[in-house]
């Protein structure tokens, strides 16, 4: 196991940077692996849990293709023009993109720092990561304010919702401090970053942050149902083709 | 669409449960009650326990996924006509409505809510008052139009959560009086308006005789139970009871197209209140009646008259409720008309319909049935001035009478407030006629037009095609 849990490669980084305390070494490596394994196991159980609910078998003859509906539904997120709710709120959609890019950068950093630190050696990359997380932090602030101010969000929001966004804000800040990967300048932020990462990995399956686990399922289920009926992919006004015109058999 | 503020906001959450007709049905010992098909409210029962047991027993994967996946982002809010017309009332939003069942799911079934309920605001109904409150939310503040579903980035299907919850409450008899009454009629008579076999046959004869008065239609018939036809035509009881002209219009067109068709004497009601009440048993029984009638008559296909929820129930959901694998093609009459026009089996002159016409997509047909272009194709062929309303197709707003709301008088004032958005949408078209392929929408739109004093009339596709006929 020790060889497998190998900490950082040393060839490309300087002597000063290489000195990593046993605590940092532990939290950025073994702790992460343990937390990841825990998360993966809980996710498997979570998916099995979802699958223990009865599936609905469609008995009506299809008019459209379930797979086309599922594909359309799954990729909806990359087509802000597809839904009125995102089409009419481009700024909201932009915030979504920025926020999730920041999340991606932070998660990537948890792997790059311990296992490919040389990848973050160029200053430009560090700054890019920091910029992504800083922008995501700003979005998170907006989202928190929105949640606190909009009556409907006040009404439906739970401690879990507030904790998720607040912890993400803390995570972005710690990520910004951690990505330069300079333990020689103080390990505190890096240790905090990795401890928070491990905390997330353990807690996420039980919190709203696990929404990304459900996303493919809800999207595919809805997409398949509406795909069979020809609702999805949405037929835009310019396309006036009917199922008959497409040469598809109508009915059974 | 911008927010349109209703004149005032009416809360329906605390409306009482009215069980007068349930009591009468029990006193009359109706067969459907004796056979335990129609459920009534029992104040002495542990209804919360039964509700929770039913929840655990009936939950399906699509329901569980939609309950688990909401991130409380609020993006669905502006897609709902109730929320848009009540911007200061967060209880009108899709996410709030769905959360009322979601919090129970979290408390009883989801992991986190079972251990730390306060963390996710999970909770259990405390008594029948809470269940009645839930009834008022799921029946009274949502037309199950699925507009929010198509606007949720997570793919949460709020409309199926509403229907699921309605179904649990229906099992307990905790339903609006109108829902009970229609369900009773469907269980007792096989159709939702308690049309008797005699009424049915006499109305058809009356229509046939009226049509035959036209010498060019002397050989026309409205056949019943004719075996081996090209299709079996199924209708909405409203057509028999209130507006049989649509049957006459269909009969005339079928005759001119040289069609071999029939109505069944039983299983002719293509509507299905099971869709609205969430009662799959009722939905399945009615759908099976119809499918078996078509097999009995050796029909080539099933044609569904203009009805939104009837189309969705008969064409799509009914097979699942009845656990019946589709064995015959089924289609909306609009598709049949489209075929006649394309194949030139009927001749039309579009200048006969010279008033500006707009088209209202029924939610059940467009968002849950996938048929948006066929009616437009027909209308373009038979109307001189067809114009779209905005938004349209899968983005259209509900007529506000969907989800069975037309049968629930207690929620009408709120429904009319929410209709402000529909009224603006209709008015903006400048059309004199609004066409819809749904009888429910006809009544819903008529309510909107009357309430908001709009200068337009509701028509259906059959009427416009019939009016344009050249023969
Ligand atoms: S239902 Fe969808 S759009 Fe509405 S709050 Fe939940 S996740 Fe957001
Ligand atoms: S289904 Fe329609 S009426 Fe119901 S909450 Fe969603 S948008 Fe509103």
Question: Can you give a write-up of this model?
Answer:
The complex is a heterodimer of chains A (252) and B (471). With 252 residues, chain A is mainly α. Chain A has a single domain, classed as Transmembrane di-heme cytochromes, Chain C (Fumarate Reductase Cytochrome B subunit). Chain A is built from ten helices and no strands. Chain A has helices at 15-18, 22-51, 66-74, 84-87, 90-115, 123-149, 151-156, 159-178, 188-203, 211-228. In chain A, helix 3 (66-74) runs antiparallel to helix 10 and helix 6 runs antiparallel to helix 8 (159-178). The longest helix of chain A is centred in the N-terminal third of the chain and has 30 residues, at 22-51. The radius of gyration of chain A is 23 Å and the shape is globular. Chain A starts with 14 loop residues before the first helix and ends in a 24-residue tail after the last helix. The longest helix of chain B has 17 residues, at 280-296. In chain B, helix 6 (94-108) crosses helix 9. In chain B, the strands form two sheets. In chain B, strands 2-1-3-4 form a four-stranded parallel β-sheet. A four-stranded parallel β-sheet of chain B has the order 6-5-7-8, with helices on both faces. Chain B is mainly alpha-helical and 471 residues long. Chain B is built from 23 helices and eight strands. Chain B has helices at 20-27, 31-34, 47-58, 61-69, 81-85, 94-108, 111-115, 128-140, 158-172, 177-189, 197-212, 237-241, 245-256, 274-277, 280-296, 308-321, 333-342, 363-366, 373-382, 412-418, 420-429, 439-451, 461-468; strands at residues 231-234, 261-262, 302-304, 330-332, 357-360, 386-387, 433-436, 457-460. In chain B, helix 22 (439-451) links the parallel strand 7 (433-436) and strand 8 (457-460). Chains A and B meet through helix 2, helix 4, helix 7, helix 8 and helix 10 of A and helix 4, helix 6, helix 16, helix 17 and helix 19 of B. The complex binds iron/sulfur cluster (SF4) (2 copies). Residues 79-80, 82, 94, 97, 142-148, 158-159 of chain B line the site of one iron/sulfur cluster.
